[in-house]
Amino acid sequence: MNHAFRLTRGNDLKKGIISYCKKKNIEAGVILSAVGCIKHLHIRLAEAKEYIDKEENYEIVSITGTVSKEDVHIHLSVSDNTGKTIGGHLKDGTIVDTTCEVVIYELKDLIFSRKLDNLTGYDELVIEKKSSN
Asked: 53-64: b or e for each residue (b if 16 or more CB lie within 10 Å)?
């Protein structure tokens, strides 16, 4: 099942996606696309040591991730007004400027959850098949 929605100026990108997934009871899904712009960027860079948290206008050039009604894992790439592109792990506080059009594909036969993985030290994706009751 496909879902499409629009976030408007001032919406938090990550919180907006989570809110939509909760409202629509999406237990497993993938982000197909998000087109728009942001006015404040908050991402975590590789190795989880550094963050970018700054007020500046960016265009969303790429987004990918897994979603559920409980949590999301999203990576975002954006470009500035010179075309320089940066990306990382989407954090709360990435704020939409004029618009962001989001498309999610729901995987109706699966349930995504997260559980601490002792090898990585992070809550990692757990994939379960829905029972066919």
From this structure: eeeeebbbeebe
**Residue ranges of E strands in 1-121:** 2-8, 29-44, 51-67, 72-79, 85-90, 95-106, 110-117
Q: Is the pLDDT of residue 4 over 90?
A: yes
Judged against a pLDDT cut of 80, whether residue 133 lies above it is answered with no
pTM: 0.93
Alpha helix ranges (H) inside the chain: 13-23
How do residues 86-115 score in pLDDT, each as one tens digit? 999 999 999 999 999 999 999 999 999 999
Could you tell me if residue 13 is left (phi over 0), alpha (psi between -120 and 50 degrees) or otherwise beta? Answer: alpha
Distance of CA 3 to the CA centre of its chain: 14
How many of the other CB atoms lie within 10 Å of CB of 108? Answer: 10
Q: What angle do CA 76, 21, 101 make, to 5 degrees?
A: 50
Q: Identify the bridge partners of residue 44 per DSSP, sorted by sequence position.
A: 51, 89
Average pLDDT over residues 44-62: 94
